[in-house]
Design goal:
Elements: E1 3-8, E2 16-25, E3 30-34, E4 43-48, E5 56-59, E6 64-69, H1 84-90, H2 96-103, E7 114-119, E8 124-129, E9 138-141, E10 145-149, H3 160-171, H4 183-189, E11 212-222, E12 232-237, E13 246-248
Antiparallel strand pairs: 1-2, 1-10, 2-11, 3-4, 4-5, 5-6, 6-7, 7-8, 8-9, 11-12, 12-13
Amino acid sequence: MCTIVLLRRPDTAWPVLLAGNRDEMRDRPWRGPGRHWPDRPEVVAGQDELAGGSWLGVNDHGVLACILNRYGSLGPAAGKRSRGELVLEALDHADASAAAAALAQLEPSAYRSFNLVIADSQDAFWLRHIGEDAESVVVQPLPPGLSMITAADRNDTKSPRIGHFLPRFRDATPPDPAADDWSAWEALLASRDHGPSVGPEGAMNVALPNGFGTVSSSLLALAKPEAERPRALWRFAAGSPDGAAFETVDL
């Protein structure tokens, strides 16, 4: 169960702040963020070496995209396309609105269920595909404020992780990219606390006996395009965020 936290503050210099933990089987091979696709030189993203797609990326236009599995759909399935390719398809577009409109036309039966987040400095969208019985992929704008998405719906507190951590992110001091201060969100991403009523899978930072766990962590900010600063900043931990250091990605 991957997790994305997206804070939209449209009237600030950094209108989009994202925190994300990638949870996966630890033996599934991957590469950290880079320009791994010769046919997509404008894309910087992590690469899933098994299927060739990505879980999170950003392009040179300042568009970000992130894919998450929904409950009961971990891993590939016969006859289904890789959901990781959807991140790359979203990043083929110069703005989030165009990307969301294009991916809304997907054939749902071609993919296992997913949550897909697409954002730029102006707009943000959640694309929700509930599974094989879905007639379409539903596109919903993400409003200003905090959105937390896991394998369930946006801000759905029936998800133990959202129920436990959404109030903590709301109360935390937001990152300040200009000052390189991400400390409050770093601490939350690294937390193994899951509360007394749920198991360890309800923590932000997961390590389960079956080899499933948090394999990387990201902190990403998008700037207003007219600002005299980079379009995006990305800090990446190539491992569990309570052990691996966050390092700045070369964009």
